[in-house]
Amino acid sequence: MQIRGIREELLEMLLAMGKSQHPCEFLAILKEEEGVVSDLELVPGTISRLESASFSPFMLPLDTHVAGSAHSHPNGVLSPSSADLRFFSSIGRYHLIIGSPYDRRSWKCFTADGTPWAMEVIA
Ligand SMILES: [Zn+2]
Q1: Gap from CA of 72 to ligand 1 centroid (Å)
Q2: Which residues form the catalytic set?
């Protein structure tokens, strides 16, 4: 499935979630519908704590509409850590990192190997 972009409302929701969890991280699975990332799923067993959100791969939904993931970096650094890269390659193809101050420019998308990806925002 080719992903064309992310729905604007979902991006707004992710930014709001980052803000509400700050200074902890959150982690969500992104789901696509007809090529647009338009929904998220919070994973049972997600542990949200300072500087590291994590969950067991066994808790991941078995769902073909999984597009990737989104998580926050409360320190505002919009680049994946080495742990992030290991996680990215385990699920989906597109991965958003949301950072403080959680405004419309406080996010970046990466492909599973950590390459920046210009994800389009679809209103
Ligand atoms: Zn991270």
Answers
A1: 7
A2: 25
Report the CATH fold assignment for 5-55+63-122: Cytidine Deaminase; domain 2 (3.40.140)
Q: Give residue 45's pLDDT.
A: 57
Residue 62 vs residues 41, 55, 57: alpha-carbon distances, Å: 12, 15, 11
Mean pLDDT along residues 91-120: 96
What is the CA(73)–ligand 1 centre distance, in A?
Answer: 6
pTM: 0.87
Q: Tell the residue number behind the tokens 């499935």, with chain if given.
A: 1
Ordered by start, the domain boundaries in the chain are 5-55+63-122
What's the CA-to-centroid distance between 11 and ligand 1, angstroms?
A: 17
pLDDT by residue (tens digit) across 28-62? 999 999 999 999 987 665 655 555 556 555 556 56
Burial of 46 (0-12, 13-18, 19+ CB in 10 A): middle
